[in-house]
Amino acid sequence: AAVQEVMEPAVVEVDEVAVEEVMSVEEMSSATRRTSLQPSPQPPPQSPLREVTQVARGLLDRLACQEARKMLLPLADSTDCEARCLLARSCVLLAEEAIEGRRKAEALQLAIECLTHAEAAVASDGESAEARVWFGQAIQMKARAVDGGIGQARVCGLMVRSWDLAVELAPNDPLPHHLLGSFAFHVSALPWVAAQSMRKLAPGLRKFTAAEAMHHLLCSEERQPRPPYGYAVTNCSLLGRLYLGRGAKAEARVWFDRALELAPQFALDKTAEQAVVAARKARARC
């Protein structure tokens, strides 16, 4: 008779350590899946005030000054430094337009308003470089609206001190350097008699040189974000003219080309438009 062999079931040894490792990996994977399904943390929402100032700043960058001012007017009595700075900025630009359009009463009203906002911004935050920038702009705009060029000359010393303080407060901000560099460029190019007359009208106004103009304009360009601000067009045009004045034609061409390359990317104010015209003419000669 055939002998039936009874096969005993095989005994499988279990590596408990390996199982624990597999389970650990599975638990981690499950936890990862659960985490990935959860919404990622969102940044805290902006306050309504900051939303308004952010939109207004964008409008001003595009020279939509009336629209920006209309949006900011409900904040005309605010103690918020940024809001008052932006109101001062919008009024400065609108006053400039009114002066160019020979609308004297409107220009004077806007000039007074811009100085009121700038003074409020400084009072709100004396350590704000932006407040100091627009205070300097506002005092010269009011002087121009009231007394023309003579009025502007009288406040130049105070204006420059305000911009110098802005540089001290925010050394990496390109705007105060742009303003000081532009001012130094034009003052250093004045005939000796005119420069002396200006310093008599503006006690305390220091002497400016072409080298100082170049220093500030280069500082402004080195601190520009990418893409740059629109006033980089003016910086580049003035730098080209300064290098050309030194006889450095190759460097001048680089800056003129940069100005002409940037110009189509921005809404340009009158100063920048004039800078583009000057760059184009000078580039043709070098």
List keywords for this structure.
single chain; TPR-like_helical_dom_sf; 0% strand; KIF-binding protein; mainly alpha; 286 residues; RMD1-3_a_helical_rpt; 72% helix
Give a structural overview.
This protein has a domain at 49-170: Alpha Horseshoe (Serine Threonine Protein Phosphatase 5, Tetratricopeptide repeat). Helices cover 72% and strands 0% of the residues. By secondary structure, the chain is an all-alpha fold. The chain is built from 13 helices and no strands. Residues 1-37 have low confidence and may be disordered. Helix 11 runs antiparallel to helix 12. The protein has helices at residues 16-37, 48-61, 65-72, 81-100, 104-124, 129-154, 156-169, 174-188, 192-201, 210-222, 232-245, 249-262, 270-285.
